[in-house]
Amino acid sequence: MKKILLLAIVVAIANFSFGQDYNAGSRTIKGSKEITKAQTPQQVIDSLKAHFPNADAVHYYQTNAATAKGWSVTTDDNLLEENAEASYYTIKFKRKDFQYFALFRANGSLVRSEFQQVDVALPAPVVATLKKLGSEKYKGYMIVSKNYWKETEYDKVREFYVVRAVKKDNYKVGKTVCVDAAGNVVYAEE
After folding, report:
1. Mind listing the pLDDT tens digit for each residue in 77-96?
2. Is residue 7 part of a domain?
3. Domain boundaries, position 181
4. What are phi and psi of 103, to 5 degrees?
5. pTM of the entire structure?
6. One domain, residues 162 and 144
7. How many secondary structure helices (H) and strands (E) does the chain include?
8. Taking the mean position of all CA atoms in its chain, how far away is CA 20?
9. Whether 161 contacts 106, CB under 8 Å
10. Predicted pLDDT of residue 170
11. For 15-24, 100-109, 123-132, 160-169, which range has the lowest pLDDT when averaged over its residues?
């Protein structure tokens, strides 16, 4: 009975953690205004189809040049100012296991993108790093979520894994560790 209760708690925590990172509609494109597909330049739509031919439930946004320089995906809901010139377009879509945001120029060229995949298999170097951290720093913790992130800006690409773990004996105590694909710790919560 205790094992079933423990399993139910772990599943609830994992679902809560998953929901925090991947809640539909919770993340917006800061400083942008949602528009229709018809209002989006055909070059942007064609570029999206070239990268993701099966993309469903796509949302389109107008983004002005000033906002594009500091483009970020956030939980804020700051809409594009009415008089601001929109020379960039942002798209977002999601599937069951990932979500994707991209900033395009009006000509369809990709400027920046952010990709998040949830509940992924971790590569061997990341697993090795987590095992080492688990035996040294985080004894008594168990993993409840494993997300992969890829951020692209022109030719620069950053890929990393964000792993969330909770104490086995106290699920309210959690830690987040960010590790790159080579197994280097980018960030570890103390």
Report:
1. 333 344 345 578 989 888 78
2. no
3. 120-188
4. -110, 125
5. 0.67
6. yes
7. 4, 11
8. 11
9. no
10. 92
11. 15-24
Residue 181 near residue 123 (C-beta atoms within 8 A):
yes
DSSP annotation string for 26-66: S-EETTEEEE-GGGS-HHHHHHHHHH-TT--S-EEEEEEHH
In a domain, 6, yes or no: no
Same domain, residue pair 45 and 101: yes
Residue identified by tokens 């790159």 is 180
Residue 164 — φ and ψ, nearest 5°?
-110, 130
| The last residue of a domain, from among 68, 91, 112 | 112
Q: Please state, in angstroms and as integers, the Cα–Cα distance from residue 187 to each residue in 11, 44, 146, following that order.
A: 25, 35, 14
Specify the residue for token string 């170097």: 125
Q: Is residue 89 located within the same domain as residue 155?
A: no
Q: What is the number of domains present in the chain?
A: 2
Does residue 106 lie in a domain region?
yes
Strand 170-180 and strand 185-188: pairing? antiparallel
- Say if residue 32 is in the same domain as residue 106: yes
* pLDDT tens column, 105-153: 889 888 889 999 999 999 999 999 999 999 998 999 999 999 999 998 8
Half-sphere exposure of 29 (CA within 13 A, CB side): 30
34 shares a domain with 106: yes
Q: Of 73, 90, 112, which one is at a domain's C-terminal end? A: 112
